[in-house]
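Hi there, hope your week has been kind to you so far. For a while now I've been wondering how a particular protein folds. I'm sending you its amino acid sequence along with the backbone structure tokens. Could you read through the record and tell me how the tokens relate to the sequence? Take your time with it, there's no hurry, and the full record follows here.
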Amino acid sequence: MKEKLKKIFYRLLLIIVISLGIAYWVCTWTFSEGTRSGYLIKISKKGVAFKTYEGELNLGGVNLSNGLEGNIWSFTMFDDELVKKMKDLEGDKVKLFYKERYKTLPWQGDTNYIVTDIERLKQ
């Protein structure tokens, strides 16, 4: 009986370890990479248990029935130097370079979009 319980325990442990490994891989896998341009309108440090830097970019846009309407894109940042650079460019037109993750873990931010670099655009 003890040997049978040991086998069940080890199989269950193996399944849990493999499942956690797959979940971690999915949450760190880069789904796509690209750029987005617009006006940088917000940078903040948010979170209850895990504090992350979050930002918003106004991509612009027009809705013919209501006139001008903003198209807001939310993103997450990890690099402190990048955050300082972004705070200096807040309100300016910028191009953001990002990586999109399929899913994120709670300590990886609120969004699946991780900004890796920023470039100021001429207005």
